[in-house]
Amino acid sequence: MVLAPIGDGLFRIGASVPANYKGEINREFFNKLLNDRVPGNKILGNMNFCGIFNAHVRSASSYRVQNIFLVGDAAHVMSPSGAQGMNSGFQDAVNLGWKLAGVIRNEYDSSLLDSYSTERMNGINRTSKLSTFLANVSLYKKFPAIFARDFAFRFASRTGIVDRFLSPRIAQIDIPHGQLSEGIMKLESGRRIPLEWNKSTLSPHLSLIKHTIFFWPGDHYIYSEWEKYFESATKIITGAVLVNLSGKVLGLIKDLLPTHSACIIVRPDGFIIDLVDIDNISSNEAFNILNKKISQQPI
Q: Which candidate, 172, 44, 193, places its Cα nearest to that of 119?
């Protein structure tokens, strides 16, 4: 049985229903479950809604057929464990939105839209496996398994393991593209950069409509020379939003950046296209490489 606070004194109660149960799902049913499964004296308050459903894990064979795109529950369903259904729909919309807008504006070839199905099916496959695992773990019936589960969760919560590994996966910010492993925070192609879209004068942020190129001067640099370098880049590179990381509050990316100068090219949905080493090449060569990469069809 799961008790989840919603707010304003409301709670959501979830429980597995005994196999082949034919009775009504009503107040008396939930009161009995509370008495049978929850220690102490528990009394159910006002019930606003109750129902029963079967959890399914299903996904369409493709999320795109010509000009028709499947998003959210139309494309996939999974166990409600981890509350991934709506979150997955948001991820679908973010992945498809910038691609569709770019194709409509003739900024990208229409073949880019094929990547929506490939990328999101990979994400949904990983997410549904986690959701199914959480559902199975929550339904343990034997005391040794329940004791081991509860002990492991308390230990993981108190030691920060949940925050570092499980929470990012549940939030779907730690699900990379392709065959990349989860649980690794690294600036490489196919992973999401740990930055937001909220505009700030102090910390770097992503563009919602264009690719973002973050210019990193390295750990040791001459400020005046780097500022001239970045100013030159803004005049030559026009197909993306350029962000100078010098003097910014870097947050989570601080420990991920290389010691030398580099540029990070990031898609509007936050996924990294490439990390370009600009330390030992001329500015013209670097700008040509960056222009070429953002003009090519994004991965």
A: 172
- Residue-range domain boundaries for the chain: 1-52, 58-171, 191-295
Residues in the chain: 299
pLDDT tens profile 82-111? 677 888 999 999 999 999 999 998 888 898
Q: Output the CA–CA distances (angstroms, integers) from residue 46 to 10, 28, 222, 270, in the order listed.
A: 9, 12, 66, 43
What values do phi and psi take at 6, rounded to 5? -100, -35
For residue 243, CA distances in Å to 56, 154, 211, 240, 264 come to 44, 41, 11, 10, 10
User: Model-level pTM?
Assistant: 0.80
**Structural contact between residues 17 and 34, judged by C-beta atoms closer than 8 angstroms:** no
pLDDT of residue 296: 63
Residue closest to 136 by CA, chosen among 182, 78, 88 = 78
CATH code, residues 58-171: 3.50.50.60
Kindly report each contact of residues 202-205 with a partner whose C-beta sits within 8 Å and lies 24 or more positions away, as own/partner.
202/248, 202/249, 203/248, 203/249, 203/250, 203/251, 204/243, 204/245, 204/248, 204/250, 204/253, 205/243
pLDDT tens for 121-150 read 998 988 888 888 887 887 787 889 888 988
Q: What is the CATH number of domain 191-295?
A: 3.40.30.10
Which range among 7-16, 43-52, 74-83, 100-109 has the greatest average pLDDT? 100-109
Q: Pairing relation of β-strands 211-216 and 240-244?
A: parallel
Segment 231-267, tens digit of pLDDT: 999 999 988 999 999 989 888 899 999 999 999 999 9
Angle ∠(274,294,177) on CA atoms, nearest 5: 40
Q: Do the Cβ atoms of 121 and 104 come closer than 8 Å?
A: no
The rounded distance, in Å, linking the Cα atoms of 298 and 281 is 24
Q: Residue 298 — pLDDT band, cuts 50, 70, 90?
A: very low
